[in-house]
Amino acid sequence: MEDLNKLRDIDALKITLASPDEVLAWSYGEVTKPETINYRTFKPEKDGLFCEKIFGPVKDYECYCGKYKRIRYKG
What we know:
Layout: H1 2-8, H2 20-26, H3 52-55
Protein name: DNA-directed RNA polymerase
GO molecular function: DNA binding; DNA-directed RNA polymerase activity
Keywords: DNA-directed RNA polymerase, Nucleotidyltransferase, Transcription, Transferase
């Protein structure tokens, strides 16, 4: 209930586009291949548009090879 009252106190909200420097600071990988998904394994191609190394795992708490699974390997 208290959170709802805080929302009512907001008069304005301003949304702006991120500058190129801000986007560069957020990034931590580079897409170097145009490939997306392997048609045989249906897994993302390494260094491609859906690379798990760059964008994070497809499945939560599971690495690409499948060796580490479950929440105890979080992060």
